[in-house]
């Protein structure tokens, strides 16, 4: 079957979003012109309401992870429950906003149809989406080309392409081609089967060593509309992180530091985002502190705050503050990372951690200028030194100010060991390389979801 009928995860998400937009617009049309009986179809007022309604739905869908179906079917019970919750929230909010916005004459029967119909058409669309893709080829067949520099990581790289951590990439390696330094020919068998590959993923250090014969086939593949992509780009596109564990030779390709640009718009937006969030979180912190102090007297006896040295921008240490959630002598035997079900966490401290209340005092470090609201999480010097010995990339995360929340925090589980810290570093480097207004808002929305639904440790 033609490659154009094989869709990767981004293409599938795009189709799902377009379908959602159409369903929501149909729902809003019925709501405005049938339930509220507004006769103006394309007035400024109705177009504005369509726009606000669409933005509201997409925000709810994003915050509640309605488009994160890499690990789940779109029509799974968990995803369906999310769709129903999103639809119900949407119709309730839209109804009350519409009352104030239009001051309409209400048709009660049509209102009930709107309430029942919106979740129904969203679910029907997702059922159609799920079933259509069952009849299409599930994955793209990949030709993976590698050299001696990436031979050590062959197994891990192939697993990443096929999908690791239960994540569906919708790619599958069908053939592996090893390029030796003396190679000047293209394997005859591969050449005969070249049309069976939907995508090429190339993981070589020196592209000049690729033979002319392979380059010609590569060009023909591109011209035929198929994908030819480097492994780093593939990893970045599908995992929204940068591969570093086995790719220490790809320093400039990964970070592109030689082409670093000054992003004025992001710098300005980042300032205002940090200002607004600092004021908001600061108010919450000062309101919550008396209650935490009072409950601490009975359920978590000892100091209210916990102070610790962390490594910040350019490797300079600073003090970080948290509401204490562990026993007083939690590290009497030495520094140790917190783990899930950590016995050092007190019962009251577990509640503080569950709703991220223990993190609120970090706003003091933001006010002092040591941290920002969004950025890589600051780590302790003892662990930084250990991680620097494992990977030469770790200090790159100190290029920018650390943050209360960040891309690694919303994309990966709570770090329990050095291995997790290296995995989270991939997300931190992705943020440093791709930081933008859009990415900052994604982090804010995902952080809100984490706090609201008590995800993670």
Protein traits:
457 residues, alpha/beta, Rossmann fold, four-stranded parallel sheet, two-stranded antiparallel ribbon, 10% strand
Major β-sheet annotation: 4 strands, parallel
Radius of gyration based on Cα positions: 26 Å
H/E order of the elements? HHHHEHEHEHEHHHEEHHEHEHHH
Give the helix proportion (percent range). 40-55%
| Nearest-integer average pLDDT | 83
Count of discrete alpha- or pi-helical segments spanning 4 or more residues: 16
If strands are numbered along the chain, what order do they take across the biggest sheet? 2-1-3-4
**Shape, principal axes of CA atoms:** flat
The number of E-state strands comes to: 8
Quote the beta fraction. 5-15%
Structural class: alpha/beta
Low-pLDDT segments? none
Into how many domains do the coordinates divide? 3
Distance between the termini: 45 Å
Verbal overview:
The protein is built from 16 helices and eight strands. Helices cover 52% and strands 10% of the residues. The model has no long low-confidence stretch (mean pLDDT 83). The longest helix has 36 residues, at 264-299. The radius of gyration is 26 Å and the shape is flat. The two termini are 45 Å apart. Strand 5 and strand 6 (317-323) form a beta hairpin. By secondary structure, it is of the alpha/beta class. The strands form three sheets. A four-stranded parallel beta sheet has the order 2-1-3-4, with helices on both faces. It has a two-stranded antiparallel ribbon with strand order 5-6. A two-stranded parallel sheet has the order 7-8. It folds into three domains: 3-134, no CATH class; 140-239, Rossmann fold, CATH 3.40.50; 264-452, no CATH class.
